Structure formats: C-alpha cells, structure tokens
Amino acid sequence: MLFSLTWSEVLLALHFTVVVACAVRVLYRQRNTGSAFAWLVILLAFPMVGVIAYLLVGETRIGRRRLARTSEMTQFYQNFASDYLTDEQHFSTDTQLPKSHQGIEKMVKKATGLGANQHNDMQLLTSTDDIINAMIDDIRQAKLSCLLAFYIIEPEGRIDALLQAVLDAAQRGVRCVILADAIGSGRFFRSQWHTKLQLAGVFVQSSLPISLLRTLYTRNDLRNHRKILVVDYYIGYTGSFNLIDPRYFKKDSGVGEWVDVMMRCTGAVVLEMAAVLYADIAVESEENLQLVQSYLLRYEQTDVAAIPTPTGNITTQVIPSAPEQDESIIYETILCAIHSATKRIVITTPYFVPNEPLLIALTTAARRGVDVTLILPEKVDSFMVRYASRAYFPLLLKHGIKIAQFNAGLLHAKTLVIDDDFSLFGTVNMDMRSFFLNLEISLAIYNRNMTEQIAALQQQYLADSRYIDEVDWLYRQKWWGLVENIVRLVSPLL
C-alpha cells in the first residue's frame, strides 16, 4: 500500500510530519506561553513558512563557541571585579538604599556581579546637538582611551565630525575601540570610515556578524542594542542615542526626526560600563578574548592610577543584559520596580509590546492607586509594532492608565520613573526583543534629584503629546481593532 501512494500524497504526509514535529518542539522548548502560542498560530496559518521561520529565529541560539567564551569571560570578569572594582577610592562599599530599593540592588548584583555605588555625577543631555557636541568635546580631550559601542553608526551629517574626532584621537596615541552591531551599522562597515579608522589604528569590531553558515548554529536576529561611550575610564555615556544625525536618518519613513536622550556620567559607574563593553568585544572571537584578558591583567598598573578620584554622590548601578544570561535581569528589574511603586509610574518608550506579567504589573499598580502614564510616539517605524501596541490600549485605558501619544517626532527615549527617588535609564524598549533577545544596558538610578530631572524631561514630552480618550478610542472603526488584535497574536515574537 505504501508504494501505491502518489507523490502528492507522500509530500502531504511529509509536510504534515514536519509541521507536527516543529509544533512539538515549540511546546517542548518555549517556556513562555505567549511565545509558544504565537508560534503555533504561525505554524497553523503558514505551515512551511512557519517551520522555516522557527528554525531560523524561533530559539535563542548563540553558538557553542560564543557561549564558551562568554562563560570564560564572565568568570574572568568576576575575578577581575573582586580584585579591582572594590577599592574605596572608586567604589562605595557602604551604600545605603531605602528598603524599597534594596531588593532590586541585591537581585541585580547577584545576577551581574555589579552592585550600586554612590561616587557618580550625572548630566542629562536632552537634545541631539547637546549630545553630539558633548561627545565630540570629550573625545577631543581624551588622553588615555576612547571606547565606543553602538547599535547604529550612520556616517553622515554631524556623525562624520564625531568619527573624525575618534580618528584624530587614535593618531595622537589614544587607545580607540569601536564595537558596532553588524546589522544596525551595516552602512558604517561598507563606508570609507571603516577603512580610514582602521588605518589610523582604531580597533573596529563587528558585533554579532551574520552569514548563511552561521544561520546553521546561531540565531541571526540577536542584536547588540547597547549604546556606550567611555573616555579615559572616567567619562561615560549611555542612553537611547545611536550615532545618527536625525536630520538625515530614515527621513523618508514618515515618523519625523528621532528624539533621543543620553546620560553623561563621571565616576565609578564608568568603569562598569567599560567592563561591559570589553566583555562584548571579548566574546566575538577567541583572539579577542585573549587580547582583552591580557589587557585587563595589566589594567591596574596602566590605567587605574590615571583615573581621577570620583567626587559625585549619585548612587547608580549598571544593569547589562544578554540572551546568554540565565536571568532576563533588566526585565525582572522593571517588574520589581513597578510592583514597588506607591505614587507614580511614568514610562517613555518607542516600542511598547508587553507580555502578560508586565500588563498585570501595570494594571494592578493603577488599581491600587498609583498614577501610571505611558508616553509613546504617535508614529513608529515598524508596522507590526504599531498595531500590536495599540491592541493593548483598551485594557490599559480601562484600568485608568493614561496613554499619551508624542507627536513631535519619533520619541526614542527609554525612561522609567518610579515615585520620587528611583528611575531606570538606558537602551531597553518595552518589548520582548529588548527583554529577552538583545544585548542591552540600563542604569538603575537611586537618587531623588536625578529622578526628578528625568521626570521633568518626561513632562516636556507630555507637552508635545496628546492623551488618548478611552471613549474615542473604543468607538473607532471596528476593523482597526480587528487588525490590531490579529497582529497581537504574534506580539510575543516582536
């Protein structure tokens, strides 16, 4: 009977077997219920396309060699941190935090090895011109080192001047390093700047490169989304700003200019930012791992003595996250912070695609009397994210959460303010990609004054925003809701 089957019947049986096998793998491997359900929907609706998509991007595969280097670098860094990042000159060992924040600090330290320290000063830079001007000025004054790690480097407009400052620094003997995401900074790697910088002595490294061969053992959509600049191990920047000139970047996308914010830091926190950057470089290749380890072994004698003694008093903590970590530490920090709120929660993010625990955290906070406000851009550069995000608006509005749509460009700032004395600031969007797939970095800021500065910036964003009215939103044309809820089915994958 088997040999009497037609080719079409054989192919149909094979098709069915492959789809069922993939569905079983989804149920076995996906711990997140939402992600599992979304993949099953895709497999049901588009069977063979779904199978191929799942094999390519369905599971967090980073490759055995990279995982081994990550493990080795993590152990090395923990030893290094215990030796060099605990001295009283640069790090506080007696930081006193309110009881409401002590749990967050302990959780992050246990996961990353990086504790809170209080010897920091911070300056909030809220316009692109201020950000670029400050970066260029600091790079031009660099004497020891200049380290950059960015998701996107677009060599046009004012970014040319910044790259020229890096090139000039390298030519006068400053140790310069650039780590750029292979996809996000594709134009940079194809530009003349890549070659010019290397010829000037700048160490340029592609982060998470992709290829057809790598697809067999790694997931190509894992991206390095961090934004870090460290100058002389004493001045550091992080935040939402990629190395782009918003006058030119995606100017035909119809969303307006990107609106970003960065934090310029001095003090102990900068050493931790540098450590995160070096670790990212080390895991890219065996050669890099050996180079970074060799350099860090000489670190105490060559660099620490040249770092000025910190004089600030802002307590902060670096929180790096990556898919190879056991814990999704930034995501867990956000949940803990929201649950701890008693007065207010204000969030700015360009991409808001929550999962169920985050939704529950926000809605229960609103129900217990916390003033919850989301500030989102009216237009974003992703069709899927735009409609998936809007699918959650009715539930949020029903529970009294205020949603403001920013209409003066694409609001790209990623900030979270809790009550009066805690804030999160960095590169993390409120979506599953940032929480579980990307390499990200955030600052947990345990300081009333800096938190109020971030809150004041959020109020400026609100001045250029329009609040969504619950009644008006619910009485839109019904087909909009249908589109949004269809897209929402795959939102755990966005």
TrEMBL record:
<keyword id="KW-1133">Transmembrane helix</keyword>
<keyword id="KW-1208">Phospholipid metabolism</keyword>
<dbReference type="Pfam" id="PF13091">
    <property type="entry name" value="PLDc_2"/>
</dbReference>
<dbReference type="GO" id="GO:0032049">
    <property type="term" value="P:cardiolipin biosynthetic process"/>
</dbReference>
<dbReference type="InterPro" id="IPR001736">
    <property type="entry name" value="PLipase_D/transphosphatidylase"/>
</dbReference>
<feature type="domain" description="PLD phosphodiesterase">
    <location>
        <begin position="407"/>
        <end position="434"/>
    </location>
</feature>
<keyword id="KW-0812">Transmembrane</keyword>
<dbReference type="InterPro" id="IPR022924">
    <property type="entry name" value="Cardiolipin_synthase"/>
</dbReference>
<dbReference type="GO" id="GO:0005886">
    <property type="term" value="C:plasma membrane"/>
</dbReference>
<dbReference type="InterPro" id="IPR025202">
    <property type="entry name" value="PLD-like_dom"/>
</dbReference>
<protein>
    <recommendedName>
        <fullName>Cardiolipin synthase</fullName>
        <ecNumber>2.7.8.-</ecNumber>
    </recommendedName>
</protein>
<feature type="domain" description="PLD phosphodiesterase">
    <location>
        <begin position="220"/>
        <end position="247"/>
    </location>
</feature>
<feature type="transmembrane region" description="Helical">
    <location>
        <begin position="37"/>
        <end position="57"/>
    </location>
</feature>
<dbReference type="Pfam" id="PF13396">
    <property type="entry name" value="PLDc_N"/>
</dbReference>
<keyword id="KW-0594">Phospholipid biosynthesis</keyword>
<keyword id="KW-0677">Repeat</keyword>
<keyword id="KW-1003">Cell membrane</keyword>
<dbReference type="InterPro" id="IPR027379">
    <property type="entry name" value="CLS_N"/>
</dbReference>
<keyword id="KW-0808">Transferase</keyword>
<dbReference type="GO" id="GO:0008808">
    <property type="term" value="F:cardiolipin synthase activity"/>
</dbReference>
<keyword id="KW-0444">Lipid biosynthesis</keyword>
<keyword id="KW-0472">Membrane</keyword>
<keyword id="KW-0443">Lipid metabolism</keyword>
